């Protein structure tokens, strides 16, 4: 079981999910109300009336205000009470709101100390709008610790076993190929890396723009940002060439719902198959793989953990865990710093 | 999460439920066996054989005795063992029984110190048999702390929001009307109060005996008795008049089953619609409102509490919470007194 | 809730269950992988890859090796890692294996200190292959403490009440008959006993080889071995005679899955009805009784325990509990000894 990093930007959802209705979503262990004002501003507020703790999302909107369904208290988009029906003077009550920024097709929420929320710290996912690419988004979830998905994505060798029949398309060569590269380096609170496999002869998801029968190099450039933002740029090029644009870019954004429940927001930005009619097919394809293969694996590991912290179980560390372990150490430093435990943070 | 007040009379059920069969009901965290002797006395006993802890309710009756289904031990209505088959001398074993009094159409149980059980302390619900009225009873339950239903019923302003489409019939005037009265006063361990709304023009449940189109005064007289007995007398009369009998009287009796599970026994005694054929319709109407509106609300609050005590979450207190807060304070004093914590009880 | 005795042989299953596939079974709170090598040896191994804790049973067999489905690590039947794909030198990793011995038609596992595992300590269930008898096996389970089934089987008087309509065939005489014998004695960590009822006139399961209308003596010889192996030899003979072979022999083997979940492996070895076509009928008969009568009773008791230890609830001890109490005391001594608590063990 991991604690949560609070002073960070997390995906609360996609902008298109936030609208006229009152959307309930559990984030970092708290119930959150999401809606959009008539002027178009996205609002995030604790989904809990301060009077008797009803969920505000069970109430109704009146213009930009929200009325509690239990005893009629009203709150504006700043969380301030605007009406307490049986009280002459409206009381000075405020519900906690959370900074929310919509950028790169993601609604980013900050649930820590509001004074520390700086939109400049939002990780870059601007590939969502890259010209010449077609973008889909998806949402899955799993019942497990949020860091398990960092571990999963930071070690892509799992493609050749867990995903052998879906996207791990060249299983017979599973294992290191001659000339294979695996590079990860820490850059502040980010980890930047590359996985490169040379001489791939069987395409995975798409033909990657390489003519059939030609051996090509395939590589993923990866940027992980603390605590749980991952971006992949996936390339393929004739052997030895590196001067190509990615044929697919992906965002993987994990937001803890609670101690053993994780939201997983993802995007896939493709240069191949520009037919909008195929978007749903691709969304089902990627979502289906997660639901059938990754999600159950992380739920299995959660079951094995039985409430323990994964690192306390002393996992064997292999060379390709380097990125995942760097990420866990970065998270551990942040958690220690948030606890004010400066000694441990160093 | 609230503790339980033990030294109090609680509704264990309705007399008609207790008969030849062995009825199992969880009350204040304990399994209780209820049955009626051949002479007609209602019996309440711990539903647990002292030998291997089988539920006695899984066994069978032999006259007024109960035989355990596991190894055949028999107990009489006083809980005394009358046969242990493989023992020459019947052992001196007694199962705990509980004082049970049937009064006002309710079976009242005392699960605290038996020496303190005084039937004179049973709250008055004699309206159950008021001449000229027709009485129905009902049972619902919810997964939540028992005090949440006190809170719910002691602040009737929730009718205008939570029940707006069912019994909160005059929503457009929601909020205090000119001349509205809200009175509550402590009388020992009871709280007595009145809610009065003048100039009501739209009937709620019934036409209340007031001609259509005539503005009338509506008021509820309420008596709460510690820990969880509530009685409403609901009146309507032409403006300014008070000399009328209630058109409906209600009992609301909450008995904790366990820490987050509550039995809710209720009665509705009506002066309108004396047709017995409509009893089932009214029972479905009132029970349905609770199941659709009140019960889910209390389960939501229980979820928000996450095992905490509601008052420890520092709810905002509004003027119309006065009755509910007086009730909570009365309960808190009783709990402290039962714990022998005299300092806290003062 | 009972702790587990670890230094003991437990039934992990029946040999026929262990084969080519990767069988997952939870034993003593741990996930265990069971399979059989090509040479026919049964293997038991912790079902947890030491790298990221995936269940090995979700992977695949490659000859006698098992490959983890997550990142491709391979382990041989001794639990030793034989391949870590992205590592030049295969790391010196070992998964814990458990001694497993197939004897008397049972696969026995030892989950304590391997150095203490001595197959000579496996309790004798050789009646499984007795000539002239026909053997069936069965598996049931219940959600309850493992010792509850010891208690259940060590006091057979429950037949006359819990099983009155199934195998407790002479209910009207329930209770001690003249000349009835109940003998139990401790022999090291075994308890050996006899229950004898004289003058039985109504057969239970079978006619027991005694002509109809003839009163006969019926007796069970019982051997309990610590912690949870029970063997019954069930006899019937004309009054006063003892020189007969049992008409049925049974094994009852309880293996804790977890704190409140128990595997129950059983066998029934009969001298009557030698028709193989009836095996399924008998298996359904015995299994059905457990599932309808014993299992629910033990789950009821588990519910009454609410996480407590049964003995801490101070059950009334009756004369026929002697065997069950001797068994519980033997288990308590073993648990204390395993904890190194020598004082308590004496």
SSE string of chain A, helices as H and strands as E: EEEEEEEEEEEHEEEEEEHHH
**Which of globular, elongated, flat, extended, rod-shaped describes the shape of chain A?**
globular
Largest interface: A-C, 24 and 21 residues
* Count of helix runs of chain A: 4
Shape-level CATH architecture of the largest domain in chain A: Alpha-Beta Complex
Low-confidence stretches of chain A: none
Using the CA coordinates, give the radius of gyration of chain A: 22 Å
Mean pLDDT of chain A: 93
How are strands sequenced across the largest beta sheet of chain A?
11-17-16-15-14-13-12
Quaternary state of the chains: homotrimer
Instruction: Summarize the biggest pleated sheet of chain A.
Output: 7 strands, antiparallel
**CATH fold naming of the largest domain in chain A:** Naphthalene 1,2-dioxygenase Alpha Subunit, Chain A, domain 1
Distance between the termini of chain A: 22 Å
The helix/strand class of chain A is alpha+beta
What portion of residues of chain A is helical?
10-25%
The CATH fourth-level homologous superfamily of the largest domain in chain A? Naphthalene 1,2-dioxygenase Alpha Subunit, Chain A, domain 1
The CATH class name of the largest domain in chain A reads Alpha Beta
């Amino acid at each position: 079981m991991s604690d949560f990093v609070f002073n960070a930007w997390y995906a609360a959802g996609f902008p298109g999910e936030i609208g006229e209705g009152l959307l309930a979503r559990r984030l970092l262990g708290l119930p959150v109300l999401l809606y959009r004002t008539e002027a178009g501003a996205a609002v995030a507020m604790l989904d809990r009336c301060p009077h008797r703790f009803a969920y505000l999302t069970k109430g109704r909107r009146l213009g930009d205000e929200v009325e509690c369904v239990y005893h009629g208290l009203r709150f504006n988009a700043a969380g301030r009470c605007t009406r307490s029906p049986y009280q002459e003077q409206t009381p000075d009550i405020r519900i906690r709101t959370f900074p929310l920024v919509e950028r790169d097709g993601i609604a980013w929420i900050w649930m820590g100390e509001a004074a520390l929320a700086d939109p400049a710290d939002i990780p870059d996912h601007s590939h969502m709008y890259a010209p010449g690419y077609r973008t889909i988004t998806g949402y899955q979830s799993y019942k497990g610790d949020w860091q398990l998905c960092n571990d999963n994505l930071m070690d892509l060798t799992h493609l050749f076993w867990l995903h052998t029949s879906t996207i791990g398309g060249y299983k017979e060569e599973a294992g290191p190929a001659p000339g294979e590269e695996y590079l990860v380096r820490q850059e502040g609170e980010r980890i930047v890396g590359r996985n490169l496999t040379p001489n791939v002869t069987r395409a995975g998801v798409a033909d990657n723009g390489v003519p059939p029968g030609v051996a090509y190099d395939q590589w993923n450039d990866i940027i992980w940002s603390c605590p749980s933002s991952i971006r992949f740029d996936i390339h393929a090029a004739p052997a030895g060439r590196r001067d190509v644009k990615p044929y697919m870019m992906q965002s993987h954004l994990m937001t803890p719902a609670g101690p053993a429940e994780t939201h997983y927001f993802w995007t896939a930005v493709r240069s191949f198959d520009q037919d909008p009619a195929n978007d749903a097919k691709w969304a089902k394809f990627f979502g289906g793989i997660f639901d059938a293969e990754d999600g159950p694996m992380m739920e299995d590991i959660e079951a094995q953990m039985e409430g323990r912290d994964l690192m306390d179980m002393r996992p064997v560390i292999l060379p390709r865990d380097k990125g995942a372990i760097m990420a866990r150490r970065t998270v551990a430093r942040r958690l220690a710093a948030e606890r004010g435990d400066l000694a441990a943070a160093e």
